[in-house]
Task: inverse folding
């Protein structure tokens, strides 16, 4: 069997990998996107129910990629940002109108963002979507990268002029290259959920600094708010074990009553906070993004 050859192979079909493939559409490149999960927003773990705040600059990028018109209907604009410090008077307020932009940012769930990106991928000429599949190994030669890919128990050899690793924090490509990294564990985790307050959020995002870490509320549809509550690692199990009423009361005590009483909450999940930065992102014909 002859070896398949590509100009570019992207490993990882999450937000970064999918966006890169879309950005390179129409350039006459033969590309492959290798993804470990089925190419739909329901099965891809990158596209879960977490709320993401997209900057206005990101909107401009997605507009250039012709993604924004489809994505806009699933977003909630942030018109103002309110920043305060628990236990201290005063606050800082940023307003979109004063900055001359329609919004400071936009809130969207990762699932909705993934749905829009994944709908766009099959429309790209010259892009092969290889999924579910996994990269077994690769050889980073001077002129080409050779790689072995497993799909449905069958191993296929292919080659590419450029291999891009967009496979997340636990990147197998970065590990196989043995790229040096800087790591920092903050000893904190983010509890994420959504809540419904008694007062409308009026498209205001809130950040409040507390003794255990910052708390953020982001405006969502139906006057819900996405919550990011930073707690110390040793507090995570205790907070996740709270029932809805106890969780709302505890979070109310952290945030205050600027949005009135918190009435309802959704499912909670915790994500450890850590910094990982590759000190080298390109080696030969392989790049990690």
Result:
């Amino acid at each position: 069997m002859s070896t398949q050859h590509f100009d570019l192979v992207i490993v990882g079909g999450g937000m970064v990998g999918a966006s890169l493939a879309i950005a390179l559409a129409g350039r006459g490149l033969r590309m492959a996107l290798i993804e470990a999960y089925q190419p739909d927003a329901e099965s891809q773990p990158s596209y879960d129910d977490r709320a993401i705040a997209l900057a206005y600059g990101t909107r401009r990028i997605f507009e250039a990629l012709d993604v924004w018109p489809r994505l806009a209907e699933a977003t909630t604009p942030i018109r103002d940002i309110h920043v305060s410090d628990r236990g201290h008077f005063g606050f800082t307020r940023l307003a979109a109108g004063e900055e001359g932009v329609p919004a400071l940012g936009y809130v969207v769930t990762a699932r909705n963002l993934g749905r829009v990106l994944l709908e766009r991928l099959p429309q790209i000429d010259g892009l092969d979507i290889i999924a579910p599949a996994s990269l077994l190994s690769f050889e980073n030669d001077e002129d080409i990268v050779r790689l072995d890919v497993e799909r449905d128990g069958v191993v296929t050899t292919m080659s590419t002029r450029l291999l891009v690793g967009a496979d997340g924090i636990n990147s197998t490509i970065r590990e196989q290259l043995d790229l040096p990294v800087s790591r920092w564990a903050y000893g904190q985790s983010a509890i994420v959920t959504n809540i419904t307050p008694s007062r409308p959020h009026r498209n205001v995002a809130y950040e409040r600094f507390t003794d255990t870490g910052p708390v953020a509320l982001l405006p969502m549809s139906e006057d819900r708010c996405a919550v990011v509550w930073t707690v110390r690692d040793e507090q995570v199990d205790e907070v996740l074990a709270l029932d809805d009423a106890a969780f709302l009361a505890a979070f109310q005590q952290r945030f205050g009553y600027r949005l009135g009483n918190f009435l309802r909450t959704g499912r909670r999940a915790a994500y450890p906070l850590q910094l990982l930065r590759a000190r080298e992102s390109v080696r030969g014909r392989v790049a990690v993004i």
Observations:
- The chain has two domains: 4-75+110-180+279-288, 79-104+183-275.
- The longest strand covers residues 181-197.
